[in-house]
Structure formats: structure tokens, C-alpha cells
Write a structure and sequence with these properties.
The protein has about 375 residues and is of the alpha/beta class. Helices cover about 55% and strands about 10% of the residues. It folds into two domains: about 250 residues, P-loop containing nucleotide triphosphate hydrolases (Rossmann fold, 3-Layer(aba) Sandwich), CATH 3.40.50; about 90 residues, no CATH class. It has 17 helices and seven strands. The protein starts with a helix and ends with a helix.
């Protein structure tokens, strides 16, 4: 099929980040551009990954059975009011049949690659998009560890959104605080896992095929930064890139400080101004958390030119790391009553043995 062949010629870019860095905001700015094909919040390979975890025999199913499971997952996602992809009007049977029909016409050996093009071509037809005008495909991939799949299957380039890790982690913690299901350990693992994998992408997978979007710079001068990005993407800058929409509908954004889901109203003008963002994370994070973040994500601080609050010595850094590790492991035991005393005893013993005379200031921290 000629149109599918033309679709396969489009350059592919992956939009990814770590949690609460502004990936949905950037995605919304691409939404109405006629030269960009982007399916809101699809996270194609993350969806495949989740399906495989739930359906342990997924790889043993035939292609049509796999597609049916994928379509069910897609429709389930579209029913969530907080998500951007709205397919509730689509009949389940017709969705399945149409994607199967397109899938059979895609000339690719790998299942994932065939399904990727089938889903994107279906989206073009569903929303009457003009394939001839489309120059690139941007894939919104929520989990950074799945970005490597785009390199594997499509030799894609990566667009990564970075933000001051203290602001991002503060937002993540605030968002997770609203959830009564996730344990503290799970929240910490999720938050830091996203950050560490983003750093891994910087260093290993994309090297020269990477464009870094600074959340702070885009908030400061969106027009200037979007023009620079458009040039790198080799597309024409459009004023639509300054407006937040999903499937053509105005989107007011999201903030874990204000709402559990998407905002119903536009935030105040200076809400994302750097000094106001800093005020929020300073109020929400304690000094020990800030120290831990500044120690472990120094590469992001360097890349984004973010100024650290603390200038710690080697032994101070060691203290912070050990204290944090103990806290996380102790939470796994679900014994919060003894947590503080346990940490104090362990740290004091460590300090008494190794740092008794020279580093007395540690005792003041405990």
C-alpha cells in the first residue's frame, strides 16, 4: 500500500523525560502542527511492556491475539478522563478489525514494527490527517527505559525534556502523596528509576542524536526555544507550537500541587516562573532530600546549569547516602514507629567508630 510506504519514510523522534519534567506540556505544543504526527500519551513500547508483564504468554500468542490485547489496552486508556487520547466513541470491534486490516498491509517482519505503523496509520485515517503534509513522527514515550526500542527498530532520534531535579522530584512526591495505593519504597524507586534511566540515555543510546529541552528555558522564552527546536527537527515553525492542545482541544496543563488530574483552568501567569517553582520545592523537600538529589543527579545539574544549595564534603555525602539507604530499606519492613531511633543508632555507631574526633558536626545533624 503506497500510503503506508510513505508513512514508513517519515523520520521518527522520541519525546521522553523523567517524571514531572514537563513532557506532557511539550507534547501538547506539537499537537496541532500539520507536519507532525503525534498520538497523545500513547507510549507505544511502554504499553507493549505492560501487556507482556500481565500476559506472561504474550510472545506465544499469534499476531492477531496480540493485537486484540493491545486494542483492549488502548481503549481502556482512552476511558481515563485524565489521559489525552480520547477514543471512547470508537467501537471495540471496529478498532480491532481496522488495525488488523492495516497490519496485514504493512510489509515488516517484526511484530512491534508492523503494529507501530498500523496504529499510526489508523490514527491518520481516524482524524483525517493529511499524510502528504506530515514530515516527522514524534513518539511520546513516558518511560525512558523504553527509548532504546526506538533506536533498535527505527534508528530514531531522542528529544529529552530536562528540569531542575529538585523541582521534578518534589512534583513527583506531591503526586504520589495523593495515591494511597503506592508504598513509599515504590514511589522512591519509580521516581529515581526515571531519572537514572534518563541519564543512561544521555550517555549510551543517543550521544549525537539527542536534543535537550530545558523546561526552564522553554518557560522563559517559548517562541525562541521552539524556533530552535523546529530547525533541528527540520520542520517549519508554526504559531500552533505556542498553544497547549490535545487533538485540537485546549489543554490547561497539570500540576501535582494543584490537582490530581488535568487542570480545569489556566494557571496564573507567573506560576512556572523559576523563583516561584523554587519556592514550591523548597517548601516541600527537606534538607536531607535536597542533599540526596544534589549528590546523585549531579550530571543533570551540570547539563542544566542548576545551582546547588549545598556544597558537601566527601564524608557528608557518605553520611547522606547511608542514611537514605537505611531509611528506604527500613520502610520495607513497615515499622515506622522505630524508624527514627533505628537510623540514629546506626549513624551514631558509624560516626563513633570512624569519625569520632574529626567530624563532630555530624552529631548535630542527627
Amino acid at each position: 500500500m503506497l500510503e503506508i510506504s510513505n508513512l514508513k519514510k517519515k523520520k521518527i523522534f522520541v519525546l521522553s523525560s523523567f517524571g514531572h519534567a514537563g513532557i506532557d506540556w511539550i507534547s501538547s505544543l506539537f499537537d496541532n502542527h500539520p507536519e507532525i504526527l503525534i498520538i497523545p500519551s500513547l507510549s507505544f513500547f511502554r504499553k507493549i511492556e505492560k501487556i507482556k508483564l500481565k500476559a506472561k504468554k504474550f510472545d506465544k500468542y499469534n499476531d492477531y491475539e496480540k493485537i486484540k490485547i493491545f486494542c483492549d489496552s488502548l481503549l481502556k486508556q482512552s476511558k481515563n478522563k485524565s489521559l489525552r487520547l480520547k477514543l471512547r466513541k470508537i467501537n471495540k470491534v471496529n478498532l480491532y478489525k481496522n488495525i488488523i486490516k492495516i497490519f496485514d498491509k504493512v510489509n515488516e517482519a517484526k511484530f512491534e514494527k508492523k503494529l507501530f505503523y498500523a496504529v499510526h496509520y489508523y490514527f491518520i485515517k481516524l482524524y483525517n490527517l493529511k499524510l502528504k503534509k506530515i514530515k516527522i513522527i514524534i513518539c511520546h514515550e513516558h518511560a525512558p527505559w523504553n527509548c532504546k526500542n526506538y533506536l533498535k527498530y527505527f534508528n530514531a532520534k531522542l528529544i529529552t525534556v530536562i528540569r531542575d531535579p529538585r523541582a521534578a522530584i518534589s512534583g513527583s512526591f506531591r503526586g504520589y502523596q495523593r495515591s494511597k495505593i503506592l508504598s513509599l519504597t515504590h514511589r522512591l524507586e519509580m521516581t529515581f528509576c526515571f531519572l537514572f534511566h534518563s541519564i543512561k540515555n544521555f550517555n549510551k543510546y543517543y550521544q549525537n542524536n539527542l536534543y535537550l529541552i530545558s523546561n526552564e528555558k522553554f518557560n522563559k522564552n517559548l517562541s525562541k526555544e521552539m524556533k530552535k527546536l523546529s530547525k533541528w527537527l527540520n520542520i517549519n515553525f508554526k504559531n500552533s507550537m505556542l498553544k497547549q492542545t490535545f487533538l485540537g482541544r485546549i489543554w490547561h496543563g497539570e500540576s501535582s500541587y494543584k490537582s490530581k488530574t488535568d487542570l480545569k483552568y489556566k494557571v496564573e501567569k507567573n506560576y512556572y516562573k523559576s523563583k516561584n517553582v523554587k519556592t514550591r520545592w523548597l517548601e516541600y523537600l527537606n534538607n536531607e532530600e535536597i542533599k540526596f538529589i544534589e549528590i546523585n543527579f549531579r550530571q543533570i545539574f551540570k547539563i542544566g546549569n542548576y545551582k546547588k544549595k549545598f556544597n558537601l564534603s566527601f564524608f557528608e555525602k557518605t553520611y547522606v547516602q547511608i542514611k537514605f539507604i537505611i531509611m528506604v530499606n527500613f520502610f520495607k519492613k513497615k515499622n515506622e514507629i522505630l524508624k527514627i531511633n533505628y537510623i540514629k543508632i546506626f549513624i551514631k555507631k558509624f560516626l563513633l567508630i570512624f569519625l569520632r574526633e574529626k567530624y563532630n558536626f555530624f552529631f548535630k545533624l542527627i
